[in-house]
Write a structure and sequence with these properties.
Oligomer: single chain
Number of domains: 2
Shape: globular
Protein name: GntR family transcriptional regulator
Organism: Sinosporangium siamense
CATH architecture of the largest domain: Orthogonal Bundle
Strand content: 5-15%
CATH class of the largest domain: Mainly Alpha
Structural class: mainly alpha
Keywords: DNA-binding, Transcription, Transcription regulation
Number of strands: 2
Order of helices and strands: HHHEEHH
Radius of gyration: 15 Å
InterPro entries: Tscrpt_reg_HTH_GntR, WH-like_DNA-bd_sf, WH_DNA-bd_sf
Helix content: 40-55%
Largest sheet: 2 strands, antiparallel
Strand order of the largest sheet: 1-2
GO molecular function: DNA binding; DNA-binding transcription factor activity
């Protein structure tokens, strides 16, 4: 799993980790039944604290996307709801646009101009 974090992103790191895992599931990198790498391995790869990764994993568990099983690790339970996945991506887009000085209305106009 190749996850990356944007250190200039103002969102909390655990939110970024959760979004990256959610995106990996949405894109089919992981499918229901697949096991994720251990939290410690993810934390080491990202250069962050394991508790931060665990917080992101618990958030995704609470959403019903992941399942924690003692002795078996964390596995994907189901795919995200398409609408909530799009809302998450749209939220990220609006936040990114804001860093460039664009408003939500500006983003909507840009989207309307797409073919």
């Amino acid at each position: 799993m190749l996850l990356s974090l944007d250190l200039s992103d103002p969102r909390p790191i655990h939110d970024q980790v959760a979004a990256a895992i959610r995106r990996a599931i949405t894109q089919g990198t992981y499918v229901p039944g697949d096991r994720l790498p251990p939290a410690r391995d993810l934390a080491d790869a990202l250069g962050i604290n394991a508790n931060t990764v665990l917080r992101a994993l618990r958030e995704l568990r609470d959403e019903g996307l992941l399942e924690f099983r003692r002795g078996r690790g964390v596995s994907v339970q189901r795919l995200p709801d398409p609408k909530s996945a799009l809302e998450s991506l749209a939220r990220e887009l609006v936040e990114e646009a804001g860093r460039y000085g664009y408003s939500k209305d500006d983003v909507i106009e840009i989207l309307r101009g797409l073919p």
